[in-house]
Amino acid sequence: MNSNNKTVACPLDCYDACEAIYIDDKCKPNQEHKVTNKKLCVKFAHLLNEENLVSAKNENKDISLEESLDILTEKLKQTKPSDVLYYKGSGNLGVMQSAPKVFFDQYGATFTKGSLCDGIGFEGLIQGRGSFINPPLENLINADVIIAWGRNFSITSPHMYELVKDKTFITIDPIVTHMAKKSDLHIQLVPKTDHELALLLTRFAYMDDMDDVESYEAYSSGADWFFDLAKSRPLVSYEATIGVHLSKIVKFVDMIKNKNVAIMTGLGVQKYNEGSQIMRAIDSFAAYIGVHNKSAGGLWYLGDSTFGYENKFNVNPKKRVDIPGVDFGSYDVVFIQGANPVVSSPNTKRVIDGLKNCFVVYFGTTYNDTCEYANLIIPSADFLTKKDVRLSYGHEYKAVSHAVKDKNDNCITEYELANYLLKTFESEALKPEDEIIEYYKNTKPILPQIESFEFIEELEIEALYEQKEKGEFYLITSKSKNALNSQFKIDNCAYVHPTSEYKDGDEVTLSTSYGQANFTIRINEDVKEECVLIHAGAKQGNYLTPHISDEEAYSAIYQEVIVSIELS
Ligand SMILES: Nc1nc2c(c(=O)[nH]1)N[C@H]1C(S)=C(S)[C@@H](COP(=O)(O)OP(=O)(O)OC[C@H]3O[C@@H](n4cnc5c(=O)[nH]c(N)nc54)[C@H](O)[C@@H]3O)O[C@H]1N2
Ligand SMILES: Nc1nc2c(c(=O)[nH]1)N[C@H]1C(S)=C(S)[C@@H](COP(=O)(O)OP(=O)(O)OC[C@H]3O[C@@H](n4cnc5c(=O)[nH]c(N)nc54)[C@H](O)[C@@H]3O)O[C@H]1N2
Ligand SMILES: [Mo]
Fold first, then answer.
1. What is the pLDDT of residue 490?
2. Phi, psi at residue 279, to the nearest 5°?
3. Nearest 10 degrees: CA dihedral of 59, 61, 62, 63?
4. Secondary element (H or E) of residue 285
5. Which residues of the chain register pLDDT less than 50?
6. Dist CA 229 CA 203 (whole Å)
7. Strand runs labelled E in 250-357
8. Hey, which residues does 22 pair with through a beta bridge?
9. Fewest beta carbons within 10 Å, which of 29, 45, 107, 178?
10. Ligand 1 atom, smallest distance to 474 CA
């Protein structure tokens, strides 16, 4: 690489975490970055075309950056610190996004806990293993068969998929996704039955002598109990609940026998109240057939991208509240950074009612839906104008960002804002920016194997199929191809199977016990019968979803609902 050409990390919240090179005012894929390979994606192109905020605003009037910082300082000085909520989203996944946490922690603000994303599944994996790290990418490349399990692998991590696309695939998904169409086998199961499928597969694996005792004995306990659990139901009873013919299970087991298997799990299996148990059942099946601790294959999820790094922005807030259930209206000041809760958080009506009842500061790059309710807007510098390092939750490669363009004078970086506030409140400044960046750039954590593992021994899960009446629908809310959560353009459509009683273009009202909203019907054969698909980022989707957390991880359970549809 010519030394005038500098790397830029894609800041978008995605498994791939790509790296570009900035040449002649353009971003080109960095061919030397293993995952980026030779392509950048449509979402990255959209990001380059975003209309970024170039002026601070107070009650919708343009003001200077200095004025906006004065207003913020005054507000913070006048307010009791615990009545200030610091709410950070994942609009940019660079490590430097955490800088403002240090100020808000020292100031004494209330923070959030839990997750709107992967927290539930992560908890399930932690309960079995103590910690969770993805296996090395090489293990995926060395696998023979890849199981995309509740993960829309080719859409939500297209670059990782590109590295392995010629392998044998099995997809487990209620939707006929792009991934399912490319797969040799598709298990189109009923939503929230993945734990049952894991038990059923365990039974068949046992019958086919696939229990890999030699492998799991070395690091685990409880395999017998797990197998007893798998045996506790008649085989045929699964067909009715999972909605999959046993012949497909026979084929499944046949396809993975004596093969190196990579199980790519995703958010789809865990957007439920007992999602952590579901994930742990899948991980137990994986251990049972000897997927773990090998040099090929393994189980992937959204890993801890900071594993093995020291936290350079360590905080210890006195008070934290569950993120799905945040009651914005109960705070005097809410500081929102890199998030769009009006679209992305559950129970939109409750979010909006809350935001109307507090002083909202929005700190971000673009004027998003949440800005409509902001009293003060502070424009953040965009990714091309600030230094950063991007770690990945999908693989172990990182991407480095240089400031390749001059920053707009009206914008401020997260690091600068943190230091400005620390100074104003007479606290110690952060370590020099370059020192922090060099640390993340130069540290290479070693990925450990699983040292101890406890199989899941009991399951207590309430099935959605027992709650759903005829004529009602399961909600599927998954990512769309060309958008990144609420960023970029998304339709406001409800996709249903042709066997439903609706026609393409029908205007309908969808309701759940949490709320209701209007959508346009799109008929699509790829959606499972009795399911309604609304993409993440659809403006009205979260009017339907619960602000209640799952049973373990303070995290969002978007799909723990039953939907009714009426023509509007
Ligand atoms: N294009 C694009 N890529 C993205 C994103 C984006 O918005 N757009 N977002 C990024 C972010 S923030 C994240 S966290 C990741 C998430 O990426 P993924 O883990 O792929 O998450 P989802 O798309 O939410 O859901 C994955 C799949 O689960 C299926 N599913 C739903 N319910 C069930 C179920 O009960 N069982 C099973 N087996 N499957 C089910 C859905 O149909 C969907 O195909 O993607 C990242 N990448
Ligand atoms: N129904 C439903 N809801 C979901 C999901 C789902 O599958 N279904 N998925 C959930 C998941 S997995 C996630 S991760 C969340 C994501 O939810 P959020 O974290 O709220 O993310 P976005 O909605 O993408 O909004 C991110 C905002 O960050 C801002 N931003 C971008 N870059 C920067 C920057 O450099 N600095 C600052 N300060 N701001 C920046 C942009 O203006 C953008 O509007 O949504 C969740 N919501
Ligand atoms: Mo996410």
1. 83
2. -65, -40
3. -60
4. helix 275-288
5. 1-3
6. 10
7. 261-265, 298-300, 320-322, 333-337
8. 6, 27
9. 45
10. 32
Total-model pTM = 0.97
**Cα→Cα distances 407→70, 118, 259, 379, 383, Å:** 21, 33, 52, 11, 10
Stated as kind and residue range, the H or E segment containing 401 is strand 399-401
Four-CA torsion 159, 42, 53, 408, nearest 10 degrees: 70
- Ligand in closest contact with the CA of 93: 2
| Cα 140–Cα 284–Cα 120 angle in degrees, nearest 5 | 85
What token pair was written down for 270?
């865990």
Q: What is the CA radius of gyration of the chain?
A: 24
Q: How far apart are CA 325 and CA 550, in angstroms?
A: 11
CA atoms within 13 A on the CB side of 49: 10
453, β-bridge pairs: 220
Token pair 């952060």 is found at: 430
How far apart (Å, rounded) are the C-alpha atoms in residues 222 and 506? 52
Note whether 368 and 399 are within 8 A (CB).
no
Could you tell me which residues come within 8 angstroms of residue 382 by beta carbon, excluding any fewer than 6 positions away?
50, 52, 365, 411
């809410």: which residue's tokens? Answer: 334
Handedness of CA 240, 241, 244, 249 (dihedral sign): negative
Q: Of all atoms in ligand 1, which is nearest to the CA of residue 90?
A: 12
Please name the residue whose Cα sits nearest to atom 10 of ligand 2.
Answer: 117
Q: What type of residue is 387?
A: K
Which secondary-structure segment (H or E) carries 62?
A: strand 61-63
Neighbours of 297 (CB within 10 A): 26
Identify which ligand lies nearest to the alpha carbon of 369. Answer: 2
CA 509 to each of CA 103, 374, 515: distance values in angstroms, whole numbers, following the listed order: 44, 28, 10
Q: How far apart are CA 337 and CA 255, in angstroms?
A: 46
The single-letter code of the amino acid at 144 is: D
Maximum pairwise Cα distance, the chain: 71
User: Does any ligand 1 atom lie closer than 6 A to the CB of residue 303?
Assistant: no
Q: Check residue 37 and give its pLDDT.
A: 87
Which tokens is 365 given? 């790059």
* Mutation probe of ligand 1 site: the residue of 35, 478, 528 with most atoms within 8 A of C-beta: 478
- For residues 189 and 69, the answer to whether their CB atoms sit within 8 Å is no
The predicted-structure confidence for 213-249, as pLDDT tens digits, reads as follows 999 999 999 999 999 999 999 999 999 999 999 999 9
Ligand with the closest atom to the CA of 487: 2
Taking CA atoms only, the protein residue closest to ligand 1 atom 21 is: 267
Could you tell me if the CB of 143 is within 6 A of ligand 2? Answer: no
Question: What gap in Å lies between CA 561 and CA 190, rounded to an integer?
Answer: 14
Strand partners of residue 372: none
Strand order across the beta sheet in which 6-9 lies: 6-9, 19-23, 26-29
Contact 253, 210 (CB under 8 A): yes
- Please give the single-letter amino acid code of residue 483: A
Coil/strand/helix, residue 215: helix
User: 198: which 2 tokens?
Assistant: 């894991």
Supply 424's token pair. Answer: 């104003």
3-state secondary structure of 212: coil
